[in-house]
Design goal:
Chain lengths: 199, 199
Amino acid sequence: MQVSVLFSGGKDSSLAAIMLEPFFDVELVTCTFSLLPVGDIARETAEKLGLASRVVCLDRSILEESYEMIVKDGFPRNAINHIHRSAVEYIASEKKAAFIADGVRRDDRVPVIEHSQARSIEDRYGVHYICPLKGFGRAAVNEMVKEHLVIEEGPSEGIIKSDYETELRELIRQRNGPDMVGELFPSHVQSRVIERKKT
Amino acid sequence: MQVSVLFSGGKDSSLAAIMLEPFFDVELVTCTFSLLPVGDIARETAEKLGLASRVVCLDRSILEESYEMIVKDGFPRNAINHIHRSAVEYIASEKKAAFIADGVRRDDRVPVIEHSQARSIEDRYGVHYICPLKGFGRAAVNEMVKEHLVIEEGPSEGIIKSDYETELRELIRQRNGPDMVGELFPSHVQSRVIERKKT
């Protein structure tokens, strides 16, 4: 059975992929708006994990819509969720894999796909949307990551990864300057996978 | 890392255990009130899965409390959830394993442990409560089960397994007769694992 795992190069989506690996043919899928070379970074990280990967270019209108949202809201939650949902819908519409997965954890509020949205996507596209880490809290995920991955952690602005935030921040930087990025995104710790441990 | 998986001999808890197997030392734990030989059935099924197992006798007062609940409510939800939560708390209090898991799926309403209850258990006992199938819908679980397990399915009254319902039904049968069992429990399909497929 084939699964497409939405992949940011961070610890959560990497661990989700590793958990599915014994049961599925895993393909990592990274979405980009071609604003930054996030696809190249994702490909490098996927190689370190030893997993197949590809990069998908999403329509720039999705990024524009999420730009409007974050500027209007003053916080990134709805904007990031909009990109995530659009990405899942796009992968679902391709119908390349019967299963689509992401690295959303139990305690995550962003990005997250609500129960009803998940069922709607499954019904409309005839796919299974699965979240291998949905039943795992942050501390449990960290314990498992420690066993399987070498990661680098730091504040969002210092870690280059392939998540939706990276390109949305860049668009805001280009249009409104770096101070606006700092105002709209609360400072939080990001992770990037450096290596997969031999187990 | 050690994980205790609450085990009923059904497809969900079996699949949850199989998903954790590549990453943890898995021990299946079946809880009983010693009203029926559910422990023996669980041990047999665990052997077929090739996983270590043990049986834990829970205090009969928990069954009595859930009996009171189902008779008062007229439906089994709160009663079953009470036993499930008590079982998780008991396994957590033993501190034999740092991780405690169950087979709860995305769409399950019974048994289920709410987010706040999960965090409370984790904080009080210093354990991780994990639900490997929490991010999987019914159809996705069925696809995975098909790959890994041979199961028998049928109405609750025809399938002997090692879940909480079995002994609660028996207590009601002893005290109130078989008709009352039919009134309190809506008829639903149960599964029992017959064999593990070689993959």
